């Protein structure tokens, strides 16, 4: 897949699932949103990341049944790629920024166009 299509893949397959009903549930505690933000960062690393070790080097090559118990419980010696430069480079918004943008647009629509009329 050409690199130019990765942003289309992100915006068509991942972003709609992430932002569906965001203005309703986006104001929950940050600890609850952290799991979704981690999922968003993982998707960004997979699509736009520079390094190929997204989780750890053996993640995609070995089956969990072939690894020993010590392999599962030992400390991992990998580091994840930072996503802030990837968000900035590809001009993508984080989950919190998308929530702020969507609620601001909805408040603007309510104030400017006085819709929905049930509020007034």
Chart the SSEs and their pairings.
Layout: H1 6-19, H2 22-25, H3 30-48, H4 69-73, H5 84-89, H6 95-113
Quick overview of this protein structure:
The protein has 120 residues and is mainly alpha-helical. Helix content is 56%, strand content 0%.
Report on the architecture of this protein.
The protein is mainly α. The chain contains six helices and no strands. 2% of the residues are buried.
Please give a handful of descriptors for the protein shown.
single chain, 120 residues, mainly alpha, 6 helices, 56% helix, extended
Alpha-carbon distance between the two ends: 50 Å
Output the radius of gyration: 19 Å
User: Share of helix among residues?
Assistant: 55-70%
The backbone outline, from C-alpha atoms, is: extended
Biggest sheet, open or closed, and with what strands and sense? none
Strand content: under 5%
Would you tell me the structural class of the helices and strands?
Answer: mainly alpha
- Number of helices, where a helix is a run of at least 4 consecutive DSSP H or I residues: 6
Average pLDDT works out at: 80
> What string, H for helix and E for strand, traces the elements in order?
HHHHHH
Q: Which segments are poorly predicted (pLDDT under 50) over 5 or more consecutive residues?
A: none
Number of strands: 0
Quaternary organization: single chain
